[in-house]
Amino acid sequence: MSTARFPEGFVWGVSTSAYQIEGATTEDGRGPSIWDVFPGGRNGDPACDHYRRHADDVRLMKDLGMAAYRFSVSWPRVMPTGRGRLNGPGLDFYDRLVDELLAAGIAPYATLYHWDLPQALEDEGGWTSRDTAHRFADYARAVHDRLGDRVGTWFTLNEPWVAAFLGHGSGVHAPGRSSAAEAFTAAHHMLLAHGLGLEALRSAGAGRAGILLNLSPVLTPGQLGDMESRPSEEDAAAVARIDALHNRQFLEPVLRGRYPADLLALIERTAGLGHVRDGDLDLIGRPIDLLGVNYYTPTVVQARPGAVADPAFPGSEDVLFCSVPTAVTAMGWPIVPSGLTLLLRRLSREYPETEMMITENGADFVDVVTADGIHDVERTSFIEEHLRALRVSLEEGAKVRGYLVWSLLDCVEWADGYRRKFGLVHVDLETQRRRLKDSALWYRDVIARNGLPDGRTRRPTLETVA
Ligand code: PNW
């Protein structure tokens, strides 16, 4: 038997998010989101025009054999001002989408918050205001009321680290704030929103529920080459600090109902602890059914006295974020499939009870677009190598139930706009025509055989290109 099979019932699929594909940002009563007004944003129209072409996109997924589709619900489409009145046509859209998915035999996985906060809530403080977490719970309940009879898998938030620290720390994401104190406060309020949202879903009798985290193994350059190598004390301390900010800040509250002590001290120094109230962590730490793991690349750091803090990692003074001598994607993200094995090994050791799914993995590359096809051997190779790394984890006993590629379509990459291409499917920006890339055809075969093909897809080297 081929060693490259996956367990029976392993779930194959793709992920997307509302703002990145829907377009139609002013139609049928949708309110503005922070990404529609953020100076570095405003790319949401027409996106992939998925709001009108959803039936075609579901058909594509069906043809590829997808078992699951993770999409996000746009809060301002459903609740234009973030509170109170529901927008019927907005809810109708998701209602139709869910019915089409079910008719195609595809399990709908709904993400409730993928970064598109209603601007009206931002005007009242956004995630720096505790009230936003309560508004999120109301919104979660309203969406569940409409879709809960058919959607069996729910995720509260996507990547609170990105939304809090790129949105409020470095300011490269909406709403473009740059304050370390606000970033920590926003992160806590997002965690609280997860807890309150989870409670709302549970009390409504929701199926499976969890959260999506962008997790990254933090390593020294030496460890990247050889995991057995022992970092210096200073380097180990740098690793621990960045790991606390990137990973443990979210894993520990959600899965253990506590902030790590080292991080708590840092938060207290930076933002105070007035925003963390008694009972919050109990709520945030209520059991989840599924942890969504979004993995792209490891984080490589070492101690460097005098280095200034990266505003996306407040408290990262004296830490150098290293570039590493590996191949990178077009975004410049190092390609390190073994990082996925390291990450899953660590999660399995520290949270052995937690069921997981890889809910995002994929890459931006420059595709070769020709009349006879879209050739993206680098993407195929990227996914293949990550699936091999995932197989190692499964053999080690990691409880990973499925794998979702980011993403179905070439879409809007936030502040980077349309130039980033993560899709299995190419989208012509003029005509909106969809064309399957070679990677989509390859992924279809993987799904059909529940395993990898024999032999390896070869990323082109200089020799094979010449
Ligand atoms: C994730 N980082 O974003 C998101 O969930 C997607 O919406 C996005 O399109 C995808 O990954 C590709 O970027 C991230 O800077 C954005 O570490 C930035 C980072 C990580 C994830």
Overall 3D form:
globular
What kind of sheet is the major sheet?
Answer: 8 strands, parallel, barrel
What is the tally of beta strands? 15
Radius of gyration: 21 Å
Please report the distance between the alpha carbons of the first and last residues. Answer: 37 Å
Assembly state here? Answer: single chain
Enzyme class: hydrolase
Family: Belongs to the glycosyl hydrolase 1 family.
Keywords: Carbohydrate metabolism, Cellulose degradation, DNA-binding, Glycosidase, Hydrolase, Polysaccharide degradation, Transcription, Transcription regulation
Catalytic activity: Hydrolysis of terminal, non-reducing beta-D-glucosyl residues with release of beta-D-glucose
What structural keywords apply?
single chain; 466 residues; alpha/beta; eight-stranded parallel β-barrel; three-stranded mixed β-sheet; binds 4-nitrophenyl beta-D-glucopyranoside; polysaccharide degradation
Walk me through the topology:
Elements: E1 11-15, H1 18-21, H2 34-37, H3 50-64, E2 68-72, H4 75-78, H5 88-103, E3 107-113, H6 119-122, H7 131-147, E4 153-158, H8 160-168, H9 180-203, E5 208-214, E6 218-219, H10 221-225, H11 233-256, H12 261-271, H13 280-284, E7 290-294, E8 299-303, E9 319-321, H14 338-350, E10 356-360, E11 368-370, E12 373-375, H15 377-395, E13 400-406, E14 425-427, E15 434-436, H16 438-449, H17 462-465
Parallel strand pairs: 1-2, 1-13, 2-3, 3-4, 4-5, 5-7, 6-8, 7-10, 10-13
Antiparallel strand pairs: 8-9, 11-12, 14-15
Helix pairs in contact: 3-5, 7-9, 8-9, 14-15
The structure holds 4-nitrophenyl beta-D-glucopyranoside (PNW).
